[in-house]
Design goal:
The complex is a heterotrimer. By secondary structure, chain A is of the alpha/beta class. Chain A has a single domain, classed as Rossmann fold, CATH 3.40.50. Chain A is built from eleven helices and ten strands. In chain A, the strands form two sheets. Chain A has a six-stranded mixed sheet with strand order 6-7-8-3-9-10, sandwiched between helices. A four-stranded antiparallel sheet of chain A has the order 2-1-4-5. In chain A, α8 links the parallel β7 and β8. Chain A is globular. By secondary structure, chain B is mostly helical. Chain B has a single domain, classed as MetI-like (MetI-like fold, Orthogonal Bundle). The longest helix of chain B has 35 residues. By secondary structure, chain C is an all-alpha fold. Chain C has two domains: 51 residues; 235 residues, MetI-like fold, CATH 1.10.3720.10. Chain C has 14 helices and no strands. The chains are: A alpha/beta, B mainly alpha, C mainly alpha. The interface between B and C is large, with 78 and 76 residues.
């Protein structure tokens, strides 16, 4: 296991010896790593290696599964999220899922501010309008939907729906945005649009993205972590990791020896 | 929810206590029902319920099997299929009182005509009449279940039969039906459960006679129709409690049959 | 099974000796016989099926014909007249049925939906399975038995018949229908919806109430309408709970007339004038029940949310 402290950047999230799994069996084994602020950190690895489970531990979604177990620490800005109310944790950390899942009973407008309205927060009309426009502009969806704000989101294409979901998460102004293979269910054109979006968010939002698409990780991330069989094999700046990987397993994975 | 169910059970048991005490076990074996002498026995009604249900089931099985085969095999899609399916759904939704009404005005005179032709007393009402009516009432349920079971038959099994040169009817008879046998049986069980509890239609055409008779053309009574007829005017604690005891008996019997039916269907779905 | 079939058609369907092959395919006469049998089978199935649906035709035709002719404004707004007198109406029965349905709905809809939510969330747990068993059992209890229970609980306690007791009985009949269809609907909603809400930091109860339930609204409404349709047509439990009354009654603590009970009472009476009322009442009841079923279909096809 590599030394996982990244120098010079401010660390916003740190996991210490995080293990997690189901039914007594761990699929994430003692992962300790750090996420620098306002950068894109990709987590890659072959399918089934535990990367999604790992990420779901960060916003405490993993524990919702039956027979789930977690141990270790996850420090958000120094605070262990496992000592805070999980609902509060999830309001500070946003998540976008593999398949776009806008709320089908709500309009596009309502979807964007769903994080507020569902939680019973009182936000007046003007503020809501502002949040909707700002966030939709940020995900470059505003021009496409501004005349259809009050229609249900389900008529949008897959790529647009996914951008809507990103907007929904961003509207909460999260400290970290978790993306779980956000383009794996999309066609190439939509994928490119999302990748562009992620790159545009660099510098303003901290992003952690799980992907099994190696070229994608190379394209858009600043830092990459490689997880294999539940263990953190290596983590480092993307260009270094891809060109001069320190661990043999990383090298094998990158050259496609195992999928 | 389960609290509710247990409460119901307890209520029934408790309320029939006076009768349980007064009648004892002979309740189940005797055949006299006389409010005047306070002698109450369930046998004629258990008999009536079982006989009408069994006959109804026999008729309904044939009818619903035909419907199931029609909708599950020959006409799965298309306009005719939709019409038939809607028809069956509508049949299932018609209130029992309406069935009883139609039965009273059409089935009874029809049976009477037949009885006159046969030279037997033209009651019109009776066990057979109510069995026929009952059959039509329960067939939508077993038809729907039968259709669903037939649609579960794997296509490759049917194709295997056809590719060996069997005709479609042979395939249905020898492959589809045996495969879905247990599911269809389960459907029949559930229909039995419904038939046991059916009250109004039966009450209107059964003739309300409290004796045991093997003559299907004569009047009789079922547990449900007995209660329907006599409860609102019953006087006397033991009389009332005996009627409640009959309700308890009905509850137990229909619950057992329903559970058995569900088990059979579940096993069928699991093994598919 | 394939082996059986081969044997049934004659041994050795796969061998090629001419005499045996002949046997396998059968003679021409046999083949024609089988084809005839095939057609006869379909014919038989069709014929029997049509017989099975005969009552539907009978019911619809006759009730519409005879019943519709009785319908006029007078019929719908007047009270029944004493025996032997022509005319009169069933206004009290219509109002009564409405009262009973409202009572039953108030009791059973909230309980039923809650139970349905519970079952869809924890259906596999011990308590969940027990509850489901209870609900399914309740569904199969004959309505007359439910009537007796309502009698024991309400009529005996109050000392007299009442609409309230009828409402309680109908509620017990509606409850399992609503519960099971709510559960079924909610189970169809994809997990990703729940996760999306939870990931936004929405608490679990709010997720259920504000995201999952609205998404399943059409199914829940359908289930409710079906429950109402079933309850509206029930007669047996009302015979000794709401009992019936020749008067217009708005007080739920008093006995009340209802459509099914009215039909029973008048149809089995010996007076032709009353029997006419029964035809008309059947028509009204049928219209209500079929309309509810139709609305259910419309709700499902138009409002159903696709995922």
């Amino acid at each position: 296991m590599e030394d996982s402290v990244l120098t010079t950047e401010k660390i916003i999230l740190e996991t210490r010896n995080l293990s997690a799994g189901f039914d007594g069996k761990d699929v994430v084994k003692g992962v300790s790593f750090t996420v620098p602020e306002r950068r894109v950190t990709a987590i890659m690895g072959p399918s089934g290696c535990g990367k999604t489970t790992f990420m779901r531990c960060i916003n405490r979604m993993h524990e919702l599964a039956p027979n789930a177990q977690v141990s270790g620490e996850v420090l958000l800005d120094g605070e262990d999220v496992y000592r805070i109310n999980p609902i509060l944790v999830r309001r500070r950390i946003g998540m976008v899922f593999q398949r776009p899942n806008p709320f089908p009973t709500m309009s596009i407008y309502d979807n964007v501010v769903a994080g507020y309205t569902l939680n019973g927060a009182r936000v007046d009309r003007a503020e809501r309008d502002q949040i909707v426009e700002e966030t939709l502009r940020r995900v470059t969806l505003w021009d496409e939907v501004k005349d259809a704000l009050y229609r249900r989101g389900t008529f949008l294409s897959g790529g647009q729906q996914q951008r809507l979901c990103i907007a929904r998460a961003l509207a909460m102004k999260p400290e970290i945005l978790l993306l779980d293979e956000p383009t794996s269910a999309l066609d190439p054109k939509a994928t490119a649009a999302i990748e562009e979006l992620i790159v545009s968010l660099k510098g303003s939002v901290t992003i952690v993205q799980v992907t099994h698409n190696i070229p994608q990780a190379a394209r858009i991330s600043d830092y990459t972590a490689f997880i294999h069989l539940g263990e953190l094999v290596e983590i480092g700046p993307t260009n270094k990791l891809f060109t001069v990987p320190k661990d043999k397993r990383t090298e094998e994975y990158l050259s496609g020896k195992f999928g | 929810m389960s609290v509710l169910l247990i409460a119901i059970l307890l209520s029934l048991v408790l309320s029939s206590r006076p009768a349980l005490v007064a009648n004892g076990f002979r309740f189940l074996t005797g055949s006299e029902w006389d409010p005047v002498t306070n002698s109450f026995h369930a046998l004629p009604f258990v008999f009536g319920t079982l006989v009408t249900s069994v006959i109804a089931l026999a008729i309904a099985t044939v009818l619903s099997l035909a419907l199931a085969i029609l909708m599950g095999e020959y006409f799965r899609t298309g306009a005719f299929a939709s019409i038939m399916r809607t028809a069956v759904e509508l049949l299932a939704g018609i209130p029992s009182i309406v069935y009883g009404f139609i039965g009273l005005f059409f089935l009874v005179p029809a049976v009477r005509v037949i009885q006159i032709a046969l030279g037997v007393p033209p009651f019109g009402v009776g066990i057979l009449t109510s069995s026929i009516l009952l059959a039509f009432m329960v067939l939508p349920y077993s038809a729907s279940i039968g259709r669903e079971m037939l649609m579960l038959v794997p296509a490759d099994l049917k194709e295997a039969a056809l590719s060996l040169g069997s005709t479609r009817s042979e395939m249905v008879w020898k492959v589809s039906l045996p495969f879905s046998r247990s599911g269809i049986m389960g459907g029949i069980f559930l229909s039995l459960g419904r038939a046991l509890g059916e009250t109004m239609a039966v009450t209107m055409v059964i003739g309300n006679s409290n004796s045991i008779t093997l003559n299907l053309l004569s009047p009789g009574n079922t547990m449900a129709s007995l209660i329907a007829n006599e409860f609102s005017e019953a006087q006397g604690a033991v009389y009332l409690a005996s009627l409640i005891e009959i309700a308890l008996l009905l509850f137990v019997i229909s619950t057992v049959i329903n559970i058995l039916g569900k088990m059979v269907i579940n096993r069928m779905v699991e093994t598919t | 099974m394939a082996g059986d079939l081969a044997r049934a058609q004659g041994e050795g369907a796969m061998q090629t000796r001419p005499s045996v092959k002949r046997k396998a395919q059968g003679t021409d006469a046999e083949l024609r016989g089988r084809l005839r049998g095939d057609k006869a089978f379909l014919g038989g199935v069709l014929a029997i099926s049509l017989i099975a649906t005969l009552p539907l035709v009978l019911i619809l035709v006759f009730i519409i014909v005879r019943g519709a002719s009785s319908i006029n404004w007078q019929f719908l707004t007047e009270l029944p007249k004493p025996m032997g007198e022509a005319g009169g109406g069933i206004s009290n029965a219509i109002v009564g049925t409405l009262i009973l349905i409202v009572l039953a709905s108030v009791i059973s809809i909230p309980l039923g939906i809650l139970a349905g939510i519970f079952l869809s969330e924890s259906g596999k747990s011990g308590l969940g399975r027990l509850t489901r068993l209870s609900v399914e059992t309740l569904m199969g209890v004959p309505s007359i038995v439910i009537g007796i229970v309502a009698y024991v609980w309400v009529v005996r306690t109050m000392g007299h018949f009442s609409a309230l007791s009828g409402g309680v009985a109908l509620a017990m009949i509606m409850l399992p229908v609503i519960t099971l269809s709510t559960e079924e609907t909610l189970l169809l909603i994809p997990v990703s919806l729940r996760e999306a809400a939870l990931a936004l930091g929405v608490s679990y109860p709010r997720t259920v109430m504000k995201v999952i339930l609205p998404a399943g609204a059409s199914g829940v409404i359908t289930g409710t309408l079906l429950g109402v349709a079933r309850a509206a047509g029930e007669t047996a439990p009302l015979l000794f709970t709401s009992f019936g009354s020749p008067y217009m009654e708005y007080n739920i603590l008093k006995p009340v007339a209802s459509l099914p009970q009215t039909i029973f009472f008048y149809a089995t009476s010996p007076y032709p004038e009353w029997q006419t009322l029964a035809w008309g009442a059947s028509f009204v009841l049928l219209v209500i029940v079929l309309a509810l079923n139709l609305v259910t279909k419309l709700v499902t096809s138009r409002w159903k949310i696709q995922f």
